[in-house]
Write a structure and sequence with these properties.
The structure is a single chain. The protein is of the alpha+beta class and about 80 residues long. It has a single domain (about 5-70), classed as TusA-like domain (Translation Initiation Factor IF3, 2-Layer Sandwich), CATH 3.30.110.40. The protein contains two helices and four strands; from the N terminus they run βαβαββ. The chain has helices spanning about 15-25, 40-55, and strands spanning about 5-10, 30-35, 55-65, 65-70. The chain has a four-stranded mixed sheet, with helices on one face. Helix 1 links the parallel strand 1 (about 5-10) and strand 2 (about 30-35). The radius of gyration is 12 Å and the shape is globular. The protein starts with a strand and ends in a 10-residue tail after the last strand.
Length: about 80
Amino acid sequence: MKKTVLNARRLLCPLPVIRVQNTVKNLGTGEILEVVCTDPGALSDIPTWCRINGHRVITSRSEHDEYIITLEVGDGAVQPAR
């Protein structure tokens, strides 16, 4: 399984989400994207974007003033509300 790392450090909302969106366009279903951010808002913004766009957050964590969100690219199907 291919893993891509996206450096979204020093970017403020909404740029981390926009960068994720642009990167995901070039990835296939099932591929892994690890996003490294410094904007704490990304911890909620990126998972929300994933849920709306049919992708799955695998992990999210913080370490050394950075926020790392790992997601699996979905097929783009919108997930039903829970």
